[in-house]
Write a structure and sequence with these properties.
six-stranded mixed sheet, single chain
C-alpha cells in the first residue's frame, strides 16, 4: 500500500548480534531501505526471509539496504541459532526485543515490510509475506533508486 502524504520513517535504535545499538536513522541516511519486521515463530516470515537475503545480495549497496528486524523476545538467544541454521549470507542481524521500533512504525502483524526512500520517508508498506527477490520487487526497488539519483 502506498502512503500519502509521506511520513518520516520513525527509526529507533535496534541491536546488532552482539547487543550493540545500531542507529538506523544515521546508517540509512541518504539510502533507500526495505525494513522488514519478522520473528522466528512466524511461518510466513520464515518463508519470506530467504527472498530478503537474496534481494540484499543482489541489490544491497551504499545506496540500498534490506533491514530485517527480529522482534523475538529472546533476541540473539533465539535468532543466532536460527540464522546459523538457515545460512543467511547477506542480511545483518537486527534485534528489536522490546518492540520499540515495531510500535513506532505502527506494525500490526508479521511479517510487515516498509519501503523507505532516500529522503527517509516511508513511501509504502506490505502486511504479509512477499517474494522480495521477484522481478517485480526488484523493479520497485530500482524505481526508488533511480528517483534518488535525480
Amino acid at each position: 500500500m502506498l502512503i500519502r502524504p509521506l511520513k518520516k520513517a520513525p527509526f529507533a535504535a535496534v541491536d546488532d548480534e552482539k547487543g550493540r545499538p545500531v542507529d538506523l536513522a544515521q546508517r540509512l541516511k541518504g539510502r533507500v531501505a526495505l525494513v522488514n519486521f519478522w520473528a522466528t515463530w512466524c511461518a510466513p516470515c520464515v518463508t519470506e526471509l530467504p527472498t530478503l537475503d537474496r534481494l540484499q545480495g543482489e541489490l544491497g549497496s551504499d545506496r540500498f539496504e534490506v533491514v530485517a528486524v527480529s522482534v523475538d523476545l529472546k533476541g540473539i538467544e533465539k535468532v543466532g541459532p536460527f540464522w546459523k541454521e538457515k545460512g543467511y549470507k547477506h542480511l545483518a542481524i537486527r534485534l528489536d526485543q522490546r518492540g520499540t521500533m515495531m510500535k513506532a512504525f505502527g506494525t500490526r502483524g508479521l511479517p510487515t515490510t516498509f519501503l523507505v526512500d532516500h529522503e527517509g520517508n516511508v513511501v509504502g508498506y506490505l502486511e504479509g509475506h512477499a517474494d522480495w527477490a521477484s522481478p517485480e520487487a526488484k523493479a520497485l526497488i530500482r524505481h526508488y533508486l533511480e528517483r534518488a539519483r535525480r
